[in-house]
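lol ok so funny story. i was supposed to be doing the assay writeup but got distracted and ended up predicting the structure for this chain instead. priorities right. anyway since i did it might as well share w the group, maybe its usefull for someone
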Amino acid sequence: MVVRRMWHAWRFKAHISPHECVQEIVVLSKGRFGLDEEADPFELLVWMLNTLHGMVRKKKTSVVYETVRGEMQVATRKVQDVSQDDMVEDVEATISTMPFLALSLELPPTPLFTNQSTDDEDKQANIPQVALGTLLQRYDGTTMVETNGLVWQYTVTNLPMYIVCHVKRFTKHNMLEKNLTVVNFPVRNVPFGDLLHVRGSTSVTYDLVVNVCHVGHQGKSAVDGAVLTEFEESPFFAYVRQGENSWFRVHDLWVEPVMPQMLFLSDSYIQVWQRN
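and the output, tada:
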């Protein structure tokens, strides 16, 4: 209802109160996302996409899924079936096709031993860096991922109009730990078709339109089973592109223009890429 009011052709003002939007989310999510604490924005995004799909779908599809949902082929093999002398490709695999709303990007583990310097410049130099293309190799159809006694291979077969990338920065043990690895990425003409080896889409490129970032280090520890307020002291904000090269920083109700170089100074958490 809120989205329809925002985009209604006959409304005098093409906007609504943000508090009204938040209140609608609280009601529809049955309290899962509330006003009393800050939730994970990726969980909110996935929930909103699925909820909007359910409201506007016709038969089995909707304009939401047609815009952001892609497809991938998943091949699984048991680890014990793959010996050291056999090629993985020669072992029979279980192949299935599944849709995706986002590509989860696994960061390399944080180094156990770093230089414990008090100098800020030395600390910045110790932070590991990784390229976006390296993280996307997980879905190129050749990289093998071993988890829970299975070997997985992901092959993207269909790229949507908008690609959502989720950088998995947080792991929860006794406390919420954040991976500070810096993700290096260009803003324009990223060849997702070439990087993912998608048939028929090798020349397809994407431009960054949204970059959601996280500020802070790690969350609070859970004591005696207490509920972990994960993102209470580590706010999220977003860089949003308008037009060709105009960027804005959005944090709660604050919106301010920024230089494009500011995109690379924070820890990316969610990225939205638009197909050219």
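Residues 141 and 155 are 4 Å apart (CA to CA). The first strand starts at residue 70 and ends at 78.
back to the writeup now i swear
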